[in-house]
Recover the amino acids of this structure.
């Protein structure tokens, strides 16, 4: 009788474990679908830092985790010891055990030790915050102004004459000859937060305030991030991508981006539509009458791999769909559907396709 009961128990525990394993596998699969694939070359993993501030944050995290784990092990060990040693035994007389009051040694130990531990954690954290926040800006640093908008990122390089959106390009920083990128963070509307886990910790973008952060990526590649402060309906689709390139490739990119837009007579019809609709109130195209700043600068739209802050890849179909109905790609986006005819849509898309 007892035996079957025991077997049923083991079976039910086994079922539960199997259930948990299946659940975990499901979560991992979902995560890999979200973060994997060609659109997301380097998953946002803070345990694989590629830049000094992210490195420092990982080190302090591991230090804090180790101390916490030691505390956990000691407390849990003492608890298990006490439970086992003082458990009720056969032949227990049921009397209350001797009670101990006011042991100075014990009181002192559990007051002083935690204070020391907190002090160590405080000093170690303060050191990391100081090293990240007060880092000296070397003369070779690239300067960027990042402006958070609902729901996209504007990137300006004031000394290079470049304005772009959502995809930040920076040079690789060789530790022997560092070329970090210092980013001033502003907001055009509400609170946002700049977070690229492999490059640096989060820093908020707050209206009427200038914050700053910096990155010095050691390896070329694409690093993905995300607005990390809820800022409205489309907060979840306010992704950001950092393209880290060797210095010469970065210089070439800057050269191309600083040029005015290409003018091709083949698409003058589309350009005419653009220049005579409300598009120009919200978008700028260098070299044309369009100088709006409510939406992304489109001068070199085709140099970007994604549109709408990483919500879709930059293909002609997606571009056409976006202009036809932004809600189809990004519900709640602040770009209105412009109700153009099919023919105008085609001409407009063809024009945008020339903005290399
Ligand atoms: C009321 C302002 C407004 C008008 C008018 C407007 N847009 Fe936009 N547009 C935006 C905003 C805001 C975004 C960014 C949306 C987002 O990512 O959430 C955007 C994004 C875009 C993008 C994607 C750019 C990128 O790099 O992600 C394209 C392309 C675009 N608009 C084209 C047009 C065209 C063409 C017109 C005219 C037919 C137009 N827009 C009219 C505000 C506007
Ligand atoms: Cu945001």
């Amino acid at each position: 009788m007892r035996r079957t009961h025991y077997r049923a128990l083991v079976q039910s525990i086994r079922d539960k474990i199997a259930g948990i394993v299946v659940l975990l596998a499901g979560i991992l699969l979902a995560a890999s679908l979200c973060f994997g694939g060609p659109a997301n070359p380097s998953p946002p993993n803070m345990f694989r830092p590629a830049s000094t501030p992210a490195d420092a944050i990982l080190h302090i995290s591991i230090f804090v985790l180790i101390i916490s784990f030691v505390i956990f092990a000691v407390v849990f060990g003492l608890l298990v010891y006490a439970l086992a040693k003082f458990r009720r035994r056969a032949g227990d007389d049921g009397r209350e055990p001797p009670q101990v009051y006011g042991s100075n040694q014990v009181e002192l130990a559990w007051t002083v030790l935690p204070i020391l531990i907190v002090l160590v954690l405080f000093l170690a954290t303060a050191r990391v915050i100081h090293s990240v926040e007060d880092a000296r800006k070397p003369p070779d640093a690239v300067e960027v102004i990042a402006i958070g908008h609902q729901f996209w990122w504007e990137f300006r390089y004031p000394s290079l004459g470049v304005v772009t959106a959502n995809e930040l390009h920076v040079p690789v920083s060789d530790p022997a000859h560092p070329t970090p990128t210092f980013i001033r963070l502003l907001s055009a509307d509400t609170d946002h937060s700049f977070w690229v886990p492999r490059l640096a910790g989060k820093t908020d973008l707050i209206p009427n305030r200038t914050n700053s952060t910096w990155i010095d990526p050691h390896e070329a590649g694409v690093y993905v991030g995300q607005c990390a402060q809820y800022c409205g309906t489309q907060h979840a689709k306010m992704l950001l991508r950092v393209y880290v390139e060797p210095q010469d490739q970065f210089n070439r990119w800057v050269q191309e981006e600083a040029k005015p837009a290409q003018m091709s007579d083949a698409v003058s019809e589309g350009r005419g539509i653009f220049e005579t609709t409300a598009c120009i109130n919200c978008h700028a195209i260098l070299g044309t009458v369009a100088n709006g700043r409510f939406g992304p600068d489109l001068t070199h739209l085709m140099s970007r791999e994604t549109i709408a802050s990483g919500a879709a890849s930059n293909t002609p179909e997606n571009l056409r769909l976006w202009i036809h109905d932004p809600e189809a790609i990004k519900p709640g986006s602040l770009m209105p559907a412009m109700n153009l005819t099919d023919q105008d849509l085609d001409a407009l898309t063809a024009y945008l396709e020339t903005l290399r």
Remarks:
- The radius of gyration is 29 Å.
- The domain at 45-83+105-257 is CATH 2.60.40.420 (Immunoglobulin-like).
- Residues 2-35 form the longest helix (34 residues).
